[in-house]
């Protein structure tokens, strides 16, 4: 699997080009506990709207999601 992940702020959601990422809409995004951050995943080259953002590998993203900040309270 060659997926890449980028964490963005809630304010950046409006800039997402959903044709370039694997999520289908803002309704399918997973947010952190305080709803200030989310992430997108994609394959191939980094979409231009994410230029300058840090790419995470699958294993790096799993480490990030294991932090308390991302734990779900469902």
Averaged pLDDT: 93
Outline the low-pLDDT stretches.
none
Oligomer: single chain
Give the overall silhouette.
globular
What is the count of distinct domains? 1
Write the H/E string, N to C: EEH
Beta content comes to: 15-25%
The SS-based structural class is alpha+beta
The proportion of residues forming helix, as a percent range, comes to 10-25%
Looking across the biggest beta sheet, what order are the strands in? 1-2
Count of strand segments:
2
Rg, rounded, reads 12 Å
Chart the SSEs and their pairings.
Elements lengths: L2 E7 L27 E7 L14 H8 L9
Antiparallel strand pairs: 1-2
What labels describe this entry?
two-stranded antiparallel ribbon, alpha+beta, 1 helix, 74 residues, 11% helix
Short description:
The protein has 74 residues and is of the alpha+beta class.
What does this structure look like?
The N and C termini lie far apart (28 Å). The longest helix is centred in the C-terminal third of the chain and has 8 residues, at 58-65. Helices cover 11% and strands 19% of the residues. The chain is built from one helix and two strands; from the N terminus they run ββα. It has one helix at residues 58-65, and strands at residues 3-9, 37-43. The mean pLDDT is 93. It has one domain (3-70). The chain is globular, with a radius of gyration of 12 Å. By secondary structure, it is an alpha+beta fold. Strands 1-2 form a two-stranded antiparallel sheet.
